[in-house]
Amino acid sequence: xxxxxxxxxxxxxxxxxxxxxxxxxxxxxxTGIALSLHVAGWTDSYLWAGVVSAGLALGSGAAGPLRxxxxxxxxxxxxxxxxxxxxxxxxxxxxxxxPSLWWLGPVIALATGLxxxxxxxxxxxxxxxxxxxxxxxxxxxMEAAMxxxxxxxxxxxxxxxxxxxxxxxxxxLCAGMALAGSLGFxxxxxxxxxxxxxxxxxxxxDGARPAASAAPRRGGVLAVPGxxxxxxxxxxxxxxxxxxxxxxxxxxxxxxxxxxxxxLALVWALGSLVGGLYAARGGGPxxxxxxxxxxxGQLAVAPFxxxxxxGHPVVLGAAxxxxxxxxxxxIGAIYTRLGEVAPxxxxxxxxxxxxxxxxxxxxxxxxxxxxLLDGLGxxxxxxxxxxxxxxxxxxxxxxxxxxxPADESVREDARx
Length: 416
Known about the structure:
By secondary structure, the protein is an all-alpha fold. The protein has 17 helices and no strands.
């Protein structure tokens, strides 16, 4: 694993592009907390805060494939600059919106979400292009692992900003991070020479696997075998992740220690980071096996929550740490296979659909998990998390197997 990391870090321009790609996405995990607390101050209603946050998420998810298609067809650097300016302006408008105009919040949030900078799609297209074929699966696994750092740093930073300077300042900080990150990422991809869109006839770097075929004229990229099942599985995992988050919040709040929810979420994310780093070395289970382990990992948390068990923080934290180790490997496997089955020149659009299905999964899973929490308790919400992950196992089994390389000495990292 150290040798793999050393080789990645030696790749020209890769560390800079990767660092800026993470900074360009840091604001996403911080905006939810900052915006919710800011909007709640308008009307003293967390319901309205949820409506405004839902508007931002809806706009972001709905435009995900469109932003990806734009990246597939045009240089990514100018797109990052334009969307970064417009998105940060939208957040600033929400920050300075007078409380008397509270009813405009969802409209502005929806419009702002449409211009979320496509840093995620760009990173998942350009990073694999910068390394040899044999390292692409490792890059996707590392990408999934590094993503966990965002889920740790973003909320913590937002909470600190709210405590020090207030919710409005925290929203403005998120706007500034979105702008600075987008501009820096645009500069780095242009400097690395990967701003231009991928050629539709591009072949893998070392010729180990045939290039993906062009997307069908009817049905677009979703009609390519494997793309729709992978996007659906990603959304199903998103239902589970959101349900487990809500279960932890409810458990901590009911026992009078709401701060423990953040601590346990941090433990869960650290477990995922460890699992992703381990998976990045290569080998291990394939796509179906990793999604299966994620389903098992989520189910393993349920017995340690009410009403099955009172939920001792140390025991629950240990269960979450183990469960977390299955998350990033499963997500990394989905990234890897999607990058392989999606046609060259349409991969950013395919990754845009992941954003859409994840948003849809969260929107569907939140009310279901909430109803189960109210009626049966946190363990039932976690059971929902596990059940959707098990459906995801069945779905990814429909992803077609890839032809093995002619050179058997080339390792196939994403086998089924």
